[in-house]
Inverse folding.
């Protein structure tokens, strides 16, 4: 005689339940759609953070440069030579920050205009092609400014947000 449980006699056979292939595919599709929506927004937030970082560091470098000017016979360091700020008295910048859009590279620095009394410190910006100079009219040269350049200057103000 075979042993049969009481549930099997009543027709209640317990089946193992799991996810079907279609259910799994639907869940994967929903996750992919959500990732597709959120990743571009996250990338934009990263870029905004780097822009804010660059603007903040440029303002600090501008303050250090103005202090250098006051304490060094009203002269700015030569073009491309922001390293002088690291040993300046009073010490404002113990170590030069690097451009967040050009890792490992310093911010650009250019002195020019009448009697070399104007300067511009710039980041290459999100597109990596920004560059700035002082033109003969003592203004920041917009032709060199690129679409993504972020800068501070005593010759004009950066109007990008």
């Amino acid at each position: 005689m075979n042993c049969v449980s009481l549930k099997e006699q009543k027709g209640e056979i317990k089946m193992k339940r799991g996810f079907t292939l279609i259910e799994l595919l639907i869940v994967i599709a929903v996750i992919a759609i959500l990732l597709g929506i959120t990743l571009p927004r996250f990338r934009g937030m990263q870029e905004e953070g780097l822009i804010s970082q660059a603007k903040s560091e440029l303002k600090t470098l501008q303050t250090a440069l103005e202090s250098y000017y006051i304490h060094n016979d009203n002269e700015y360091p030569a073009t491309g030579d922001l390293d002088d700020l690291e040993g300046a008295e009073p010490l404002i910048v113990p170590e030069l920050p690097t451009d967040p859009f050009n890792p490992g590279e310093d911010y650009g620095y250019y002195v020019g205009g009448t009697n070399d009394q104007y300067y511009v410190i710039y980041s290459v910006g999100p597109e990596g092609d920004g560059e700035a100079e002082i033109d003969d009219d003592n203004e920041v040269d917009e032709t060199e400014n690129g679409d993504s350049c972020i800068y501070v200057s005593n010759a004009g103000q950066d109007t990008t947000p």
Remarks:
- The longest strand covers residues 118-123.
- The helical segments are 6-10, 21-71.
